[in-house]
Every structure is written in structure tokens, then in C-alpha cells.
């Protein structure tokens, strides 16, 4: 492999403060305690962040309630102007946000800069456009907002998940209290500054930082009318139980174990790129990652040889380096989860990783592929949420469909074949919310996203995404 000279993006564009408060009613205020967020690539502390307890959450919900009265009455056109303004500021400050995201999350700058940030701005632009057209969205002539939304998001796409939650909520006239993940609070707090810069009325967006208890206090708060959660199936189940019997509306976006299905007539080189993007993109910290490769037996050897050659060229290291393909694992806990499942995998199937030197400090995991995997293996059933691919083979299309659907999840899938008719036939039979054809992990704000079975319920994105934030 060619050696590349280091090409690090300068971190000096972001001004990380020593400490951050909670963002409540348009102001940064103290919490009941504090916690540290670290850089997962170096393990160095980045900042102290305020911890919100139930009392702080209560203040945030009260601020959102108060702001709802005016915000919900504002003509859609006026709400849209605020959202357009936020979208433009996100674009103007995108380099700063991308660098901060890579520092706090560990994802390569290539992805935060070229994938996350453009999608974040696009999401705000898209829902800004809906704000004055809600009467034409198919939910009646004058659909009304729900009220205060309590939103809890994970660490894998901190700012993008914030955009998925906040943009449609505000466009529909709701106000929000959002809790980012404990390990990635910084871009949400910079977003709070952007709300100030955009002169968004106080209380329309509130950000409360903290860990699971803060999230629990938020979703269980009686003043919250709508709960939106993205994260693990385990916590999603708890939330579903706790809101059952209340009037709260809820959307859950949970785990996945997507199949990427390669037929013998697929363009192999493109498919290999798609496999790599499907599972190694964002360190495999992707709920819709193509974590199971289903390859037709007749081309299995060819695909695997080519995949391994490609994996050997992936660069693992400094997230801020523009040449980096795979950054740091987000936290020590996540790294130990990945390691534990990979060890189980090793006792079940054949493990392979390319030779690759991992930095001494920080949380790292080499891209890994398991072959000889069967459906009963835990690595074929459980979400690993890391750069780990399980390979299974099939002979007939029917067998491919059966294996693809054989998990408790159903978030996404991929089909690779030259035949258009086969794409349609297979996509129709896959129990997955999103099916990509001859590509993988492509997102667009106009397209709804969500799962079947244990992957959750409700849809985010597109016109469908409005429904979750309207009384319909
Ligand atoms: P998680 O615990 O479900 O975290 C998601 C969010 O929920 C975080 O903001 C979390 O706070 C918060 N939370 C935790 N317990 C809560 C509770 N009882 N009530 C309300 N909110 C609560 O997920 P995780 O621990 O970060 O990751 C565990 C596994 O979940 C991963 O290995 C992966 O398999 C899966 N996962 C899936 C997605 C996805 O996009 N579908 C995203 C992340 C993780 P803290 O940040 O403090 O935990
Ligand atoms: Mg957690």
C-alpha cells in the first residue's frame, strides 16, 4: 500500500470551552453536577459538561411548554424562516461542526465533513420547506402540533440524529427538550449556540446533557407529549413500557442486523465497495450497517478475496486525518462490547483482519470479517455495532430472502444484482424498512427511515416524518 503523508484537519477552528452548561429557555445554566467528555482517539478530556437531574429536566420541560404557546401559533411561514436561518448557519459553520464531531465522537473527518454535516443542513432545509405547507401533507387541511417533544439520541451520529429529531418537530410547531448521548454532547451544545445566533425564541429548543437517568427523567416527565428515541432495543423496550398507558405519542428507532445480499451477477467490484461502506463506514456504529454479508455460493470465493484485498487498504487512525477511513470506537464500553462479541465469534467461526497497526492510546478495533458463519451463531443474530462483518452464503434467491429475514430486526438491507426484476422481487420480500439496491448506507431527508419488528416503530424523514409530530 502507498504511504500517505499525514493530512490532519486543523482543530483550531473550534473553540472547545473548559465547561458547558445546560441550554434551557435560551440560556446556558448550571446543572446539578458535571461530567467529562473525552476524545476517544486519545482518551484526553475535552470539557466538563453539566449534568441534568430530574429538577433540571423539569425546568427544561417547563420552558418548552411556555414557548409552545407562541411557537405553535406562529404562521408556518415564520417558523420556516427560523429553520432556513438555522440551516444556513449550519452550512456556514459546517467545518467547525465537523471537526468538533470528529473530536468528540471519533469518526473520520471525511465522514463528518462529507456525510454528516451536509445531511444535517439538508434536513433543516427540507423541513423548513414543509413548515408552511403542512396543510398539503396529507394529514388534513390544518394539522396541529402535539406539544412538547422529549427526544433522546445516541452517540453514533450525534448531530445528524439531532437534526432528524429537531427539524421536523419545529417545522410542525412543537417545542423540544433533547438529550444527547453522554459520550457525545459537544455538537448539540454548539447547536444550542446556533439557536441563539438564529434568534430562535427562548424555550423552543432546550438541550439537557447527562446519562441514562437524565434520559429516563425526560421520557417519563408528565409534561412531555411526544417521545422520540433512537438507541438500543433494550432501552427502547423500557421506554415503550413506561409510556404505555399514558397519552404520549412515541417513535422508536432501534437496532438492526442488516443483510447485504450479493447475487452472482452483481458487479463485484462495486459490490465490494458497497460491503465496505456498509459495515466499516463510521466504525460500524450504524444501526442500519450491513453487518451480515449474504453472498451467492458461486461467487463467494471471488467476493471474499476481493473484499480482503480492499480491507487491507483501509486506513485506521487519527479521525482528523483526511486520509483516515476508520476512526476511533466511541467509548471504552462500546469497545469492550465489540471485543466480547468478536471473541464469541472466534469460538464459532473463522476470524480475519488485515495486518494493521492500531494507535497505542484511544479506543480502536481493526476491521474484522468472520467466515463460515451459520444462522445460529450469535454474531449472525446480535447487533455488534462495530467494524465486524459476518459472512454467510446462499444458493437460491429464496434461501437468500429466508436468511436475510431471519433475525429479530428489520431496519435495512441491500441487494446487489444486475437484474432489475430481481431487485424488485427481493426487495418486496425483505422485512426491512429500507432496502438499498446496488448501493448501501445512502441517506436523503426526503426518504422515510424506520424499522420492522424489534428495529422499532414510526418513520423519520420525508413527508412520513411529519406524522410523528402532528396530531393526526
Ligand atoms: P442506549 O443506552 O440505548 O443509549 C441511547 C440514548 O438513550 C443515550 O442518550 C442514553 O444515555 C439514553 N438512555 C440510556 N438509558 C436510558 C433510559 N433508561 N431512559 C431513557 N434514555 C436512556 O445505547 P448505548 O448504551 O449507547 O449503546 C448500546 C447498544 O445500543 C450499542 O452497542 C448498539 O448495539 C445499540 N445502539 C443502537 C443505536 C441506533 O442507532 N439504533 C445507537 C446507539 C446504540 P447515555 O448516553 O448516557 O447512555
Ligand atoms: Mg448508554
Topology of helices and strands:
Blueprint: E1 19-20, E2 22-24, E3 27-29, E4 33-38, E5 45-51, H1 54-71, H2 76-92, H3 94-105, H4 109-130, E6 144-145, E7 148-152, H5 158-171, E8 175-179, H6 186-197, E9 205-207, H7 212-219, E10 226-230, H8 233-243, E11 249-253, E12 259-262, H9 268-280, E13 292-296, H10 297-311, H11 332-348, E14 350-352, E15 368-371, H12 378-381, E16 388-394, H13 397-405, E17 412-416, H14 420-429, E18 434-437, E19 456-457, H15 464-467, E20 470-471
Parallel strand pairs: 1-5, 7-8, 7-10, 8-9, 10-11, 12-13, 12-17, 13-16, 15-16, 17-18
Antiparallel strand pairs: 2-3, 4-5, 6-20, 11-19, 14-15
The protein binds NADP nicotinamide-adenine-dinucleotide phosphate and magnesium ion.
NADP nicotinamide-adenine-dinucleotide phosphate binds next to helix 7, helix 8 and helix 11.
Tag the structure with descriptive keywords:
seven-stranded mixed β-sheet; six-stranded mixed β-sheet; Aldehyde Dehydrogenase, Chain A, domain 1; 2 domains; binds magnesium ion; Aldehyde Dehydrogenase, Chain A, domain 2; single chain; globular; about 475 residues; alpha/beta; binds NADP nicotinamide-adenine-dinucleotide phosphate
Amino acid at each position: 500500500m502507498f504511504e500517505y503523508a499525514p493530512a490532519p484537519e486543523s482543530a483550531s477552528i473550534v473553540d472547545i470551552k473548559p465547561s458547558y452548561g445546560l441550554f434551557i429557555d435560551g440560556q446556558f445554566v448550571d446543572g446539578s453536577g458535571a461530567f467529562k467528555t473525552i476524545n476517544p482517539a486519545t482518551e484526553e478530556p475535552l470539557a466538563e459538561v453539566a449534568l441534568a437531574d430530574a429538577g433540571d429536566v423539569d425546568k427544561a420541560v417547563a420552558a418548552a411548554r411556555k414557548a409552545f404557546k407562541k411557537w405553535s401559533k406562529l404562521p408556518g411561514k415564520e417558523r420556516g424562516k427560523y429553520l432556513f436561518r438555522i440551516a444556513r448557519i449550519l452550512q456556514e459553520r459546517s467545518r467547525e461542526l465537523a471537526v468538533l464531531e470528529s473530536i468528540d465522537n471519533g469518526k473520520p473527518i471525511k465522514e463528518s465533513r462529507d456525510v454528516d454535516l451536509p445531511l444535517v443542513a439538508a434536513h433543516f432545509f427540507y423541513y423548513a420547506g414543509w413548515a408552511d405547507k403542512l396543510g398539503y401533507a396529507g394529514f388534513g387541511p390544518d394539522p396541529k402540533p402535539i406539544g412538547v417533544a422529549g427526544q433522546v439520541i445516541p452517540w453514533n451520529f450525534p448531530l445528524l440524529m439531532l437534526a432528524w429529531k429537531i427539524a421536523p418537530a419545529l417545522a410542525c410547531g412543537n417545542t423540544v427538550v433533547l438529550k444527547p448521548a453522554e459520550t457525545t454532547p459537544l455538537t448539540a451544545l454548539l447547536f444550542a449556540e446556533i439557536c441563539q445566533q438564529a434568534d430562535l425564541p427562548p424555550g423552543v429548543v432546550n438541550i439537557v446533557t447527562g446519562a441514562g437517568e437524565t434520559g429516563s427523567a425526560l421520557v417519563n416527565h408528565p409534561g412531555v407529549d411526544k417521545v422520540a428515541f433512537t438507541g438500543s432495543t433494550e432501552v427502547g423496550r423500557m421506554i415503550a413500557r413506561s409510556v404505555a398507558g399514558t397519552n404520549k405519542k412515541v417513535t422508536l428507532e432501534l437496532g438492526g442486523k442488516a443483510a447485504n445480499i450479493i447475487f452472482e451477477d452483481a458487479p463485484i467490484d462495486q459490490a465490494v465497495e458497497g460491503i465496505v461502506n456498509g459495515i466499516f463506514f463510521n466504525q460500524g456504529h450504524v444501526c442500519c450497517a450491513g453487518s451480515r454479508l449474504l453472498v451467492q455460493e458461486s461467487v463467494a470465493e471471488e467476493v471474499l478475496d476481493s473484499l480482503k484485498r480492499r480491507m487491507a487498504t483501509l486506513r485506521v487512525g487519527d479521525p482528523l486525518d483526511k486520509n483516515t477511513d476508520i476512526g476511533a470506537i466511541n467509548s471504552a464500553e462500546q469497545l469492550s462490547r465489540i471485543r466480547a462479541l468478536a471473541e464469541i465469534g472466534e469460538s464459532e467461526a473463522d476470524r480475519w483482519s488485515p495486518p494493521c497497526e492500531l494507535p497505542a492510546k484511544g479506543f480502536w478495533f481493526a476491521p474484522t470479517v468472520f467466515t463460515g458463519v451459520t444462522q445460529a451463531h450469535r454474531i449472525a443474530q446480535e447487533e455488534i455495532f462495530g467494524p465486524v462483518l459476518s459472512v454467510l452464503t446462499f444458493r437460491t434467491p429464496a434461501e437468500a430472502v429466508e436468511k436475510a429475514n431471519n433475525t429479530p430486526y428489520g431496519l435495512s438491507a441491500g441487494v446487489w444484482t444486475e437484474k432489475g426484476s430481481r431487485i424488485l422481487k427481493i426487495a418486496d420480500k425483505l422485512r426491512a424498512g429500507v432496502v438499498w439496491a446496488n448501493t448501501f448506507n445512502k441517506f436523503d431527508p426526503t426518504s422515510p427511515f424506520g424499522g420492522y419488528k424489534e428495529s422499532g416503530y414510526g418513520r423519520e424523514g420525508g413527508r412520513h416524518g411529519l406524522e410523528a409530530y402532528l396530531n393526526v
